[in-house]
Amino acid sequence: MDILCVEDDHIIAKPIIDELSAAFPEAEIKWIGTESEFYNSFEQIAENLPVIVTMDVMKLWAIPSANMPFPPAEVKRGGIHRAGIRCAIRLNNDERTRNIPIVLYTVLDEKDLEESLMKLNNCYYVSKEKPLSHLVEKVRELVGNKLAKL
């Protein structure tokens, strides 16, 4: 069982990965840092489906460097504020990945994401303003529901 964590801030990603590893010792927790890494890893994600994805909404396109990949037009238009939504849409639009539950773990207010959440299949919201245990409990709930359907 794989759990995918998509979070560009390693200071936040480490505790998420640690908490999920403790809660799901049988799971392999995979981490993707940026939107470009998510796009580049998409085929691998589709071939080795995670049981769930935790997704930050605001994330960098790439780690700034001299050889960073050039962002596509949609990224230039939308910027970092909807990077996680673009990744979730990509999961939702592919028949191989559309049934993976996605937990948006973000500092953005739920009302700010309401329209996006209504359009996305299997997409849930957890605020980073709450303790990390809320994210773990949401993952536990969704993983339990998904495993019960298998």
Major sheet:
5 strands, parallel
Oligomer: single chain
Binned, the helix content reads 40-55%
Structural class: alpha/beta
Would you count the extended β strands for me? Answer: 5
3D shape: globular
Work out the helix count. Answer: 6
End-to-end C-alpha gap: 13 Å
Mean pLDDT: 90
Strand order of the largest sheet: 2-1-3-4-5
Q: Estimate what percentage of residues fall within beta strands.
A: 15-25%
Strand-and-helix sequence, N→C?
Answer: EHEHEHHEHEH
Radius of gyration: 14 Å
Low-confidence stretches: none
Indicate the topology.
Blueprint: E1 2-6, H1 10-23, E2 28-32, H2 35-47, E3 52-55, H3 73-78, H4 83-93, E4 102-106, H5 110-119, E5 123-127, H6 132-149
Parallel strand pairs: 1-2, 1-3, 3-4, 4-5
Short recap of the structure:
This protein is an alpha/beta fold and 150 residues long. Helix content is 48%, strand content 16%.
Features:
150 residues; 48% helix; alpha/beta
Descriptive overview:
With 150 residues, the protein is of the alpha/beta class. 48% of the residues lie in helices and 16% in strands. It has six helices and five strands, in the order βαβαβααβαβα. The chain has a five-stranded parallel β-sheet, with helices on both faces. The longest helix has 18 residues, at 132-149. It starts with a strand and ends with a helix. The mean pLDDT is 90.
